[in-house]
Please model this.
Amino acid sequence: MRTSWLTRLSTAFLAISIIIPPVCSFQSPLVSSRTQEGRLTQHSAIRLQMSDNNKSNGKTEYSRELYLREEAESPFRKVRFFFYYSLGAGALTSLAVSASRVAAALAGINTDLLQESAINVGVDVAGLVVLGLAFQKDKEAQDSRLKRASKGAELARLTVRGSKSIITGDLPNVNEASETFTTSLASMRRGRGIEKRVVIAAAGKEKIAEILEDSIKLADSLVMSDLLIVPVEMPQGLSPNVEGKTVPDCVALPVGNGWKAMVNDEAEEAIKQGVNIEKEGICIILKKNGRVGQRTKGIFLGKMVGEVEERRDLGLDVKNI
Model:
């Protein structure tokens, strides 16, 4: 009976501890500085591997750095896992003893222990079920955090090419070709040299052409709202052809092959929800802390600008959203 009551109390404690979210958070520091040529160089205290996750035998494997980051965000998960295993082993031992007593009682040995042993068997089985569900929930939460961190690392490594006025904040003469520079999306995060909310707009060729036209009309408002548009032409997952076209300073073009894999993953999820990628498009908005703030069906630049201006008119903070 003591073992069964201990199992009850322990499983109840674990259930409560899972519900309470961790209060600790962690983000690896990254400082940006300009070189003599005016380009950004990044110095990171924690460098992610070139591949943060890979699939082996159908199972996703994450790098050690991502596991360390996840542990920092949820520092008590390992403790809970220890209790899951230890209490599970104790419940299995108690179940084996109680089950043997029930079997003996049914065979006519120590029949006076039948009722007590049967109750213990029920308690042990219930405890194992609760522990199993709690472990599964905790494991799913861990996998979700790792997947989100991995996606964030992939987004941070993506590079764009845009006007150097993005750094200086000055608008170049419209009659002059503005200088361009190439940098990663990580440099757009708060405190890393450039603070922008990156709007990844993925759609077909015609829809992207409309987005570029809208960005020209809303250029001043987009700059004031710290919105940087990154158009990605689908299904190729590449930068649109802008040769001979006007590209406003609020637009940065994707560079490199990493964009195709990232956007295709997002497109697959959107297609499952009935979104027509080429005609309607999808929009992924990254907040200044680098996290995905919103995913939308369709691309509505005017609405984005309007929401920021509405917050500004109400006297709300528009720099840290």
User: Anything to note?
Assistant: The first strand starts at residue 30 and ends at 34.
